[in-house]
Design a protein that fits this description.
By secondary structure, the chain is mostly beta strands. It has a domain of 110 residues: Immunoglobulin-like. It is built from two helices and nine strands. The strands form two sheets. It has a six-stranded mixed sheet, with no helix packed on it. It has a three-stranded antiparallel sheet with strand order 2-7-6, with no helix packed on it.
Length: 158
């Protein structure tokens, strides 16, 4: 009987404890992507390996140090760029079949030094949001090559 009382009081203590719920996101660091300033484009990888939600899925690319932070938003119907950061207008694109393939990679055209930063790729629907990956983009300045020693370059061949 006394052990039964102990068990019951322990059970009551356990039941009355506050509950902490943790949200776990499918999240991976895709790594660092390096590109030279002025290149034609750079691809920031993002791949989702689960079921894409059927109810109004969104693929969202953001950069948290900017305001607004939205870099690119894709809905089921297509791109929705009305709230896009103005520095990325006409600079970003995504695959048209991304919701079918899970390839949410973002192409950034003509990268500039100011594009360097941490980008987050997310998938969302009306109820939930999943952080899929983070990419650190490093845009390197153009390397100026010094002229060869001795002055001008010559096309003379022996």
């Amino acid at each position: 009987p006394s052990s039964h009382l102990f068990l019951s009081s322990s059970l009551l203590e356990l039941i009355s404890l506050p509950v902490c719920v943790l949200t776990v996101s499918q999240h991976a660091l895709a790594g660092v992507v390096e590109v030279n300033e002025g290149e034609e484009s750079v691809l920031m990888p993002c791949y989702f390996k689960g079921m894409v939600p059927e109810d109004n899925p969104l693929v969202i690319w953001t950069r948290s140090d900017l305001n607004p932070s939205l870099i690119h938003l894709r809905r089921d119907e297509g791109d929705d760029l009305k709230d896009q950061h103005q520095g990325y207008r006409d600079q970003t694109s995504m695959r048209h079949d991304l919701l079918d393939t899970g390839n949410f990679s973002l192409t950034l055209r003509k990268p500039r030094l100011s594009d360097s930063g941490n980008y987050t790729c997310r998938l969302a629907d009306e109820r939930e949001e999943w952080r899929v990956t983070e990419v650190q983009l490093k845009v390197k300045g153009e390397q100026q090559t010094p002229p060869p020693a001795g002055g001008q370059r010559s096309n003379y061949r022996k």
